[in-house]
Each structure stands twice: as structure tokens, then as C-alpha cells.
Specification:
Layout lengths: L1 E8 L4 H15 L3 E8 L4 H5 L4 E4 L8 H14 L3 E5 L3 H11 L4 E5 L10 H10 L4 E4 L2 H9 L5 E4 L6 H6 L15 E6 L4 H4 L1 H14 L2 E6 L5 H10 L6 E2 L7 H7 L2 E4 L8 H9 L3 E4 L2 H4 L8 E3 L4 H13 L1 H15 L4 H19 L3
Parallel strand pairs: 1-2, 1-4, 2-3, 4-5, 5-6, 6-7, 8-9, 8-11, 9-10, 11-12, 12-13
Helix pairs in contact: 1-16, 3-4, 4-5, 9-14, 12-15
Length: 364
């Protein structure tokens, strides 16, 4: 089977990471895999270590109209059996190119309804998506979103994969890269610095009283448009030494293995990679009580809190730090939940979906 994936970049995002897992596994399964992309990033190295055909497209911006022309030429050259798109703008540009050339198109849905404001680009995505051969959602919420919009085609839930064996082989960080002592207690946020989804302001005010009271440092790891918001809050409250913004880090598994807890109090998620990987790392969790987290966690495996209540966030962090044995018991339960989400299992689900589409269309 010849498969062409279309994605904007290989930067530090969940979709980018999942494609970096999936593409090599499909190659190992005997398929010919191509990827059309705009920018590289930290997730590209994994792909390059495998015989995946890469097609980098020239562009002046993510919505450069010449990208569409290049995609048309790429599809004609590769002549794939299946085209799969990952995230805007490729859902629009790659999807339209596939439809114009009559290629079966799989649209991957990484989110749920709350992620999509009523804007032209998201309406365009859904309008085009009605022509997809299938939607591959990584959560039940993503499936419900497409059903609620009246999509009558196939929607397959394919959960995100977790490279458990690789995570097991990662060494815990000694914290020297952060200029911290090896015995320093830390709590971690990992993700995009984007408050609309990630609830950064409530997270900051949940973390703030804890770092003032206890000998613990908070690391907000990542980049995004709301970095200035966090920098201003840190500066205004005089906690530059206690709440740090180290940017995107190259070894998140090592950090999670060393941390006392991961805090993720997003307003909404699809199928959160960071939470899944923290579970695999055995890192205790404080997470928002939202449907996406309820799909993978319960009260036995994490402390679930109201994301709108900074005081509740602070109290859950205090409980985790003050009762490490109970926190580790929850982390052990979480680890057991995630153990079956292998990359091979995810790739098999995609293979089955692709083959079903091709069988329906009378292709080989």
C-alpha cells in the first residue's frame, strides 16, 4: 500500500509526534510511506531514521497558495493509494488536492468540538471534510464532534500511541540542564503556551501559592503565543526563581521520570500525548476533570480537579507533594492503563482502516 501523509511541520505538537511514530511503523509493515511537509522540527529525526520518503514544500506562510499547487504535483508524482492529512492547513489544502485528483482521503481528528470556534477556516475544514473517505479521531469526543455535524461517513476512533518500551529506557533527568540541584523537588507543565486551551492563567494561580509555601520549583515547558502572559505574571508576582519557563525541552520523558508531578488543567483536549506519556513514565498527575482526561484516567490513577478553580488546583498539588506514597500508587495505576497503547497497535488500526477504504472502492 502506498500512503501519503500531509502535515505542516514536525514541531513539538501531539499530531507531529504521532505521525513520527506511525510512519516508520507503517514502513516496517511493508508499506511505502511518503510525507509532504512544510517545516522540520524535533519530531523529524525519528522519521529520518527510517526509509520514509520526505517531500518538503516551499512556502512563504502556512497558507501560501503555492503549497496547494505543490501538493497537486506531489500527489501526481507519488500516486498514493491513500492520502491522510494532519491538522490545519493541511486538512484543507491536502484534502482538497486529494478530492480533486480522486484519491481516498483520511482526515485525522485530534480534537473535539470545544477546540473549534465558528470561523471560516474551521467551517472550510468541515465543509471539505464531508468528502473524506473516513475521519480517524483519536478520542470519543472527536468522533462525537463529527457525528454532531451530521457527517455520515465512517468515523474510526484510533487512540494515540505511547512508546512504552522507549520510555522505559529513558534515564531520569539530573536537572543540571535547568541549573537545579539534583535533589530539588519540581512540578512540571509540558505543552503549548496557549491559554485558551491550556488554561495557563488558572494554572499559574494554582501553582503560585504552592511555590511560595513549599520548597518546590515549577517548570512551564513549551512555547506558544501566551509566553508573554506567563512572563508578565512571573515578573509581577516576583517568582522568577520559583516558576521558570525553559522553553521546549528535548528530553521530556527524562524530566517526567524525575518530577514529583505533572500538572495538566486544560479546558479541553483531544487525546493528550503529554498526559499519556506521563502515565507511562510513572509520574503522578494532577489533571482537569474534563471528558478527554476521563477517557484515560479516573480517581484511582490521578487527582482530577475543577480547571476553573485555582484553589482546588493548589490543594491537589499540595496533596500530591505531601503524600508521595499515595501519589505513586495512583501513578502505578495510571501506568497500567497506558501499557496497551503501543505504536504497533495504532499502526494496525490505521492499516485496517486504509484497507477497508480501498476494498470499498475496489482498489488493491
Amino acid at each position: 500500500m502506498k500512503i501519503l501523509h500531509c502535515i505542516s511541520s514536525f514541531l513539538a505538537g501531539g499530531a507531529e509526534r504521532q505521525l513520527s511514530y506511525l510512519a516508520p511503523e507503517l514502513v516496517h509493515g511493508g508499506h511505502e510511506v511518503h510525507i509532504a511537509y512544510l517545516e522540520g522540527g524535533i519530531n523529524l529525526d525519528r522519521v529520518r531514521k527510517n526509509p520514509v520518503a520526505l517531500h518538503q514544500l516551499h512556502h512563504r506562510s502556512p497558507y501560501d497558495p503555492t503549497i496547494f499547487v505543490q501538493l497537486i504535483l506531489c500527489l501526481k508524482k507519488v500516486n498514493p493509494d491513500i492520502v491522510q492529512t494532519w491538522v490545519l492547513p493541511m486538512d484543507v489544502l491536502g484534502g482538497l488536492a486529494a478530492l480533486m485528483l480522486g484519491k481516498p482521503w483520511v482526515l485525522r481528528e485530534p480534537n473535539r468540538a470545544l477546540a473549534y470556534p465558528n470561523s471560516f477556516r474551521f467551517r472550510s475544514r468541515f465543509w471539505l471534510g464531508r468528502g473524506a473517505a473516513a475521519v480517524a479521531a483519536n478520542s470519543q469526543g472527536g468522533e462525537r464532534y463529527w457525528r454532531s455535524l451530521g457527517f455520515g461517513g465512517k468515523v474510526q476512533v484510533i487512540p494515540n500511541a505511547v512508546p512504552v518500551e522507549e520510555i522505559d529506557g529513558a534515564a531520569a533527568s539530573d536537572l543540571s540542564e535547568f541549573g537545579l540541584a539534583s535533589d530539588q523537588k519540581i512540578m512540571v507543565y509540558l505543552g503549548r503556551l496557549y491559554s485558551r486551551a491550556k488554561n495557563l492563567e488558572n494554572l499559574f494561580y494554582g501553582v503560585l501559592p504552592v511555590v511560595k509555601e513549599l520548597p518546590v520549583i515549577a517548570l512551564f515547558c513549551g512555547e506558544g503565543p501566551d509566553r508573554p502572559l506567563l512572563e508578565g505574571l512571573v515578573r509581577n508576582h516576583g517568582v522568577a526563581g520559583k516558576i521558570r519557563l525553559p522553553g521546549v525541552i528535548a528530553n521530556p520523558w527524562s524530566l517526567l521520570k524525575r518530577a514529583e508531578l505533572l500538572v495538566s488543567v486544560s479546558h479541553y483536549e483531544g487525546c493528550p500525548n503529554v498526559v499519556l506519556e506521563a502515565m507511562a513514565c510513572g509520574c503522578p498527575l494532577v489533571a482537569s476533570d474534563i471528558p478527554a482526561h476521563r477517557e484515560i484516567l479516573d480517581e484511582a490513577s490521578a487527582l482530577l480537579v475543577n480547571p476553573q478553580d485555582p484553589a482546588a488546583i493548589a490543594q491537589a498539588i499540595r496533596w500530591t507533594l505531601s503524600a508521595p506514597e499515595a501519589a505513586q500508587q495512583r501513578a502505578t495505576q495510571a501506568r497500567e492503563k497506558v501499557a496497551r497503547r503501543s505504536i504497533a497497535a495504532m499502526a494496525l488500526r490505521y492499516e485496517e482502516l486504509y484497507q477497508e477504504i480501498l476494498n470499498t472502492r475496489g482498489s488493491v
